[in-house]
Automatic annotation (TrEMBL):
Its EC number is 6.3.1.-. It comes from Streptacidiphilus alkalitolerans. One of its GO terms (molecular function) is ligase activity. InterPro entries: Gln_synt_N_sf, Gln_synth/guanido_kin_cat_dom, Gln_synth_cat_dom. Gene3D superfamilies: Glutamine synthetase/guanido kinase, catalytic domain. The lineage of its organism: Bacteria, Bacillati, Actinomycetota, Actinomycetes, Kitasatosporales. This is Glutamine synthetase family protein. Belongs to the glutamine synthetase family.
Amino acid sequence: MTATTLDAAPNRALTLQQLQDLVDRRKLTTVQLAAVDGPGRLVGKTYGAPFFLDWLAAAKRSPEVCAYLFATDRAMRPVTGFDLTDWNRGFGDVHLAVQMDTARLTPWQRGNALVLAQPVGSDGQPLAVAPTVMLNRQLQLLRDSYGLSAKVSWETEFTLYHGSVEEAAAQDFLGLTPVTSDTRDYALDHPAELTAFFRDLTANLDGAAFPVEAIKTESAPGQVEVTFDYGDPVQACLRHLLFKHAARAIANRHDLVPTFMAAPDTGVGNGLHLHLSLYRGDRPVLGDDADPARLSATGEHAVAGLLEALPALGPLFAPVPNSYKRFRPHSFAPDRYAWGYDNRTTAVRVVGHGQGLHLELRLPGADANVYLVLAAALAAISHGIEGKLKPPPPTPGDGYLDTTTPMVPTSLHRALHDYRASPLPGQLLGDSVAQHYAHAAHLELEQEEARVTDVERSLGFART
């Protein structure tokens, strides 16, 4: 099934007038107003398009949603322990400030458009713990303090299986069959259903004004990688959200089901690599003027900041227990905080040529929230620039064997300990924000540790 366009609406954000024209011609029937929650999902409400536009024109009170959307875990349990809201605070509402410059068609949903909103607290200020607000704060700090801006792109992996979500759930997500049975890394011969999925995903994202740069199969059965072009960091994050939204809907039409788990099977790791450049005006600043293939002083400060701060920010880029099952030797997911030039065995890879020299952060898995990953990375970079930090020598060979560099934690329990023990999360994010995400990580651990797993049954049922 190919993309459904709304009379060839323009390949860019839609204006209010363009939305109204589509409504008048009965080509647009619904508008989804969405915010981004802690795990990095779109949450919100679907409105009738005429009502939504009339409401905007009348400038009525902003819509509200329950604040627990920004103070819960992946299972969306109403829990206690968050300062924002909990049982003791009555689970009140937060407002949603509409951001019309994000309006996009979602061609995989006939007659629908999506608009992002910024959560606003009872004090009228943007909600500090909201991922979009956290990213905006770090971008403003980079701009105001250092005169720098960022450009980014995301390179994300996921795994496709035969069947539907309902069928997978019925078998407890065990024994699923990947869409390919073998390694197809860089292959151009794919099963028919995978080729059809690629074609429809590409067409639909193009219709949403976010064209794909490239799609390829990866090194594990059923594994796929999608990359997007460089650009504005806020738009890059929105693009990733809509990509995941589209991938799930379109896969379902092809009787396929995707997962963005970091480690969906033993020995399989889905990464989410952040490619990042820094600019002063129109001029890139990471490369050295005398030798553009090497880092400038600013570039070295940025790398040093990442290496010093990221070990204390683990729950922001590896948020759940499963995240840490990627970090294994010779897995192409780093297990040490090392850096190097064009070195895929390190956590921070300096890659590109000339003005294209940039940083690739290889730590996050596909389960991470892009807004939190980018906010953490920019906070770490600002920390490095502020302190004029110097990185250790680059790792020239196998980063997995570089014992001079610290290890990446192998569990969320350890990462949360490091997060709480360091002053950096509070200094870089603000104490209340840091505490909020510490509690979110604690809830994920609590949920996981309380459950009996298939591994425990397999090892212990008849052997104990």
